[in-house]
Amino acid sequence: MPVSVVLNGAHQPESALALQAGDCLYLRLADARGLGLAPAPDAPIMSVEGEPYLTLDTKTGGPVSAHLLEDGTLAITAAATAFAARHLGEVDHAVALSPIVPAIFLDYDIDVLHDGGGTRATALLEGTISGAWGVFSTSGIVAGGLETGGRGVGAAQTVRLDSSWLRDFPAHRLRLVLGDTLTRGSSWTGPARIAGIRLGTEFALAPEWLTWPLPELAGSSVLPSTLELVARQDRRDIPLAPGDFTYAWRPQFSGAGTVTMTLRDISGAVRTVTRSYYASQGLLRPGLVDFSVEAGALRRNYGVSSFDYGALMGGATLRRGMTDHLTLEARIEGGDGVAMGSAGGTILLANLLEVNLGGALSHGPLGGGHLAQIQAQRLTQSYSLTASYRLRSAQFRQVGEVLLPGSGASRELALSGSLALGRGGSVTAGYLRVGQGASRYAIASLGWSGNWRKAYVSLGAQHTMRSTGDGGGETSLIAGLTVPLGGGGNISLSADRSRSLAAIDRSPPGNLGLGYHLAGGYEQSMGRHSTGKCNGGHARERSTLPGSTATARRRPGSNCAAA
Fold first, then answer.
1. How many CA atoms lie within 13 A of 120 on its CB side?
2. What pTM, to 2 d.p., does this model score?
3. CA dist., res. 94 & res. 207, Å (int)
4. What whole-number distance in Å separates Cα of residue 563 and Cα of residue 549?
5. Which of 73, 155, 173, 329 is deepest in the core (most CB within 10 A)?
6. Dist CA 213 CA 283 (whole Å)
């Protein structure tokens, strides 16, 4: 007989076919599934004229119970577990690949330095050609100079830097490099520069695909509902069918946070729960593998000699997500009389801290050595805290590492933190203590940054302490001001105890056009004052080819530049 259905007190828009035999009630299986019910595999099913019917429990207390009302309405009471469980979340949509267009790109970066010894110019040149077969690029440095008073012209020196062929496989998130490249390092071991081959994963080829585990929110409802998720600077509304559900929450930032989950069903009932989470990009999704395999000849005297190669080496790195809270990592490498193996991982502790542990053993010219590191951090939108400690024996070596005379065991302690003050800007603080053999030094810093009207202002202080050599300490104050001009330009001022710099920058447009960087400064160095000179700065004229972009860069330690 056709019946109207009331499910968990809510009238359903569609009627259903039911069967009554004595005290037993049966509901057509297709109608049960249309109501969202998901019968268990061992649920009693009866066939009537070839049509399967689900046996309903007429006693209350079971997952699904029912009874017929006097008006012929079938009243069904179902627990959340009687409905199909649902896993919800944002779907990763693959980014469409653009057609491959053959291209040639030429880039140059010119630095000019003038001081009492004369004028010297250095040009960094890079050429790239690409097509469906991949990308080939090569780069080098050309340097020359003129002594003061025109007494002589230094011979121009040309040094090749890197030459390589690169081929990406976006469908598999893989990258192959032949030629000059870097091996894969970790947070506790560094990379080596080689000329050879490297094959490994490259997740940047699928930017829409999240590699880190998302926090999951869970709940249940017995009626159609709306799930409201509210976090800091984020809100979402998701319609829900009855049943248990999990939702993969994609936060707007990495670190710790809270989200308020409000469930409103069609009867007007409201339930609100606040839950904490911690999203870490240092973790991999369970089962996800990140690897790199390298082999080749070690580069020596990079930036000085064009073709100086050393011993052969090989190495491999493997990272794998074990759970939502644990990712393991291991690396082995050997060559040039050195063998090194390391292991470690990243673990998330109770949605409070992200801890990175690593250790390595090596055997080289000085015998066996070891390295150990631990780092813990907590990131939130309001504050962040990071602490790390690193211990390295004097005998520890990596493949391709240069042996420095007198280098002993080292110990390094680093602490840092930041606090967001809302409209009051933000405060940062740091402390670094390093021990290398018999020498010790420590650096403490404190800074503030914020917006003043349209300008960005930063103030800071740094104190350096030494326990060897000249001893004592040194304190420096740093101030900076940046004012945007619109159209990709800005004016910046910076000063500390020994130098000051004023600069104006404008980024080049996305098509044809020029960008520029003009700067002038003052520096007090080694008891000598210099005005209107460029110490470590650069002069540059940049042009942009169609479809390419170029950005201005200032090398660390440079004080002024002109273009």
1. 16
2. 0.78
3. 8
4. 18
5. 329
6. 7
pLDDT 10s digits, 510-555: 777 787 888 888 877 544 333 333 333 332 222 332 333 333 333 3
pLDDT digits (tens, 9 = 90+) for 425-462: 999 999 999 988 778 889 999 999 999 888 999 999 99
Tell me how far apart the alpha carbons of residues 42 and 54 are, in angstroms, rounded to a whole number: 11
* Non-local CB neighbours of 455 within 8 Å, separated by 6+ positions: 481, 482, 483, 484
Residue 250 in contact with residue 90, Cβ under 8 Å?
A: yes
Beta-strand ranges (E) seen in 241-366 are: 243-248, 255-265, 270-279, 289-299, 309-323, 326-335, 338-349, 353-364
Q: How far apart are the first and last CA of the chain?
A: 89
Residue environment code for 310-339, b if the CB has 16+ CB neighbours within 10 A, otherwise e: eeebbbbbbbbbeebbbbebebebbbbebb
Q: Tell me the chain's radius of gyration from C-alpha atoms.
A: 33
Over residues 215-269, the pLDDT tens digits come to: 888 888 888 888 888 887 778 888 888 888 888 888 877 788 888 889 888 888 8
User: Is-contact 19 53, C-beta < 8 A?
Assistant: yes
Element (H, E) at 48: strand 45-48
Specify which residues 243 forms β-bridges with. Answer: 221
